[in-house]
User: What shape does this take?
Amino acid sequence: MSAETTGAPTLPGDGSLCIHNDWFESGWPVVMPLHQAMWAAMLLSTATARQLRGDLDTVAVLVFGDDPRRAPRGIGGQGLESPLVWLDAEAVEAADSPEEAARITADAQTHRAWCEEALRAAGLPAPSTMRDLAAVMERLGIARCEDGRWTMPDCLPRPEDVLRLPEELLGRLRRLRRVQDSGPAERALLHHITHTLGRPAQFITTLQRLKQVTGFGAGRLRDVLDHLATGTGEIKLHRGQPPVTVAAKDLTGQSRFLISLDWDCIDAGRNQGARIV
Assistant: This one.
């Protein structure tokens, strides 16, 4: 099944909601209106997983009920007719300064502008309601309805493959893909450092040695080390005497280098403080 059950408030029917396994990894949450796009994905995923039949209105009633006021808050108070919300009002209210609130507002306006422009360039209408958004997602291939039966592909289409996106967003998606691709190697590396080395504050190694103990190549390991050093700040890389900061991309297979680990940062950033096991 291409969707999985997630926790949700009590709702009509069996009360379960689903979200496609690939939704977050696909990159669509950073392209579409964040909260309502997720609820639209939940609607389509739940219709698929529970094998509901009918048009969008029918499955919306089966999933969320026939009273829009009882639907989850993230959808909006008018059900499928709820206007799309691009600005997170709570984030604006929580801003530390008027300048930060203005930046959040400007970012939301920019997000809406390039998203609508990208959709129009692909021959799709700019959505203004939840109903429009679900219809656009269907036309993008995220979901499909044939003879009243809803389905979703195992792997959702990637935004960058079906839309012409601004370079800044493409950069964000490339970083997302790199982190996703590096996930198994990162887990293998941290498992080795935790269980084999016993969570040292620092240790000297080489890419060749890390390749032997993790089973991943030098290129993947450089990506992992770069992410941990410059992305999350959980490690630092040094070479020479006295130690000089070095970039992962500059390490050769046999280069001896020092890895320093900030275990407080590592533990705090993973599983809300759970230690790596």
Remarks:
- The longest strand covers residues 235-239.
- The two ends are 29 Å apart (CA to CA).
- The chain is about 45% helix and 10% strand.
- Residues 1-13, 271-277 have pLDDT under 50 and may be disordered.
